[in-house]
Structure formats: structure tokens, C-alpha cells
Amino acid sequence: MKPLSRRRAITLASSYLATVPLLGGASRAQPAPGTGATVFEMANFLAPGVDADAAFAKAIAAVSKAAADATRSGGPVHIVFNLGKNATYRINRPLAFKALHGFELNGNGAQLINTTRGSTLTISGSSHVTIRDLTIDYDPLPFTRIRQGRAPDHRQGRCRLSR
After folding, report:
1. How far apart are CA 139 and CA 20, in angstroms?
2. 3-state SS, residue 120
3. Average pLDDT, the chain
4. pLDDT tens across 56-67, in order?
5. Residue 78 class from Cβ within 10 Å (0-12 exposed, 13-18 middle, 19+ buried)?
């Protein structure tokens, strides 16, 4: 075993001292919702025969009302909106979240499928908004065009995908 040179010892000591504050410091990630959170479940707004757009409209109205009440009372409130676990929601209108502060949209592995070519989420006048564990997809895919023609022998079809 070789003895450490003075330069190598100083380098090791300085790199150790530089990493200690990073390992023991406070995390910049937001904590999970605690007991002070107001929680809304998407399952409470869905009923048989109710489409996803109407359910989201009711849920967003309830979330906005809770946020407005919290603002009037002067206290900061953490609002969590939980979607169904691994659920799929087909929507025609964008989900518009306005004037929310301390809001979390927890997808729980859910998938939003936008069936129009418009936007899926609109967030305005808000701060500290967190969206987690959510997949957004489009049906049909925007900016995709398929041309279908006939092959020369008329037994097979061919497709050409273009942008």
C-alpha cells in the first residue's frame, strides 16, 4: 500500500467537506401531503353514466371553491386532487386550473387521453402547483397524417406516415 501524498490527501479532504453539506442539508423536494391537506378524490365525482368531462368540471369547481375559501380565511392550504389508480379518462375539454396556490394533482398512474387537438391542461394565476404520476396522451395523435392507398395487385393496403 502506497502512502498518500500531501496533494492527494488535501484533494480527498476537500471533496469530502464539499459533499457533506449536500448529504445532510434540507431537501428541495416538496413533502408529501400531511394532515393539513384538503384531499379530493376523482371517484367521488364519477357516477355511472357521467362522462369524464362533466366529472372533471365538478371536481375542478370543488377544488377552486376550497382554494377560494382558504384564501378568504387567510390561511395557506395544501389541496390534493387524486385521480383513480391506473384509471383512463377520455376528455374533450382542457382541464383548467386557475388561481390555485399549493395545489397537487396526483395522477396515481392515471392516463388522460385528449380526443381533440387542443390543450389538455391549462394552469393560470397559480403557484406551487405539482403534477405527479400522470400520463397525457392524444387520440388521434396531433401532427400525424396517414395516407392509405392500394398496392398494385389490390390485395394489400399500404400506409405512409407523414408529418
Report:
1. 49
2. coil
3. 79
4. 999 999 999 999
5. buried
Rounded Cα distance, 131 and 108, in Å: 10
Peptide bond into 48 cis (omega under 30): no
Q: Which residues neighbour 55 within 8 Å (Cβ) at sequence distance 6 or greater? A: 42, 45, 46, 47
Q: Which residue has the cell 390534493?
A: 80
Cell of 99: 388561481
| pLDDT grade for 144, boundaries at 50, 70 and 90 | low
3-state SS, residue 77 = coil
Residues 6+ apart with CB under 8 A from 149: 157, 158, 160
H/E stretch holding 41: strand 37-41
| β-pair partners for 78 | 37
Q: Where are the alpha helices (DSSP H) in 34-90?
A: 52-73
The candidate with the shortest Cα–Cα distance to 122, out of 89, 88, 99, is 99
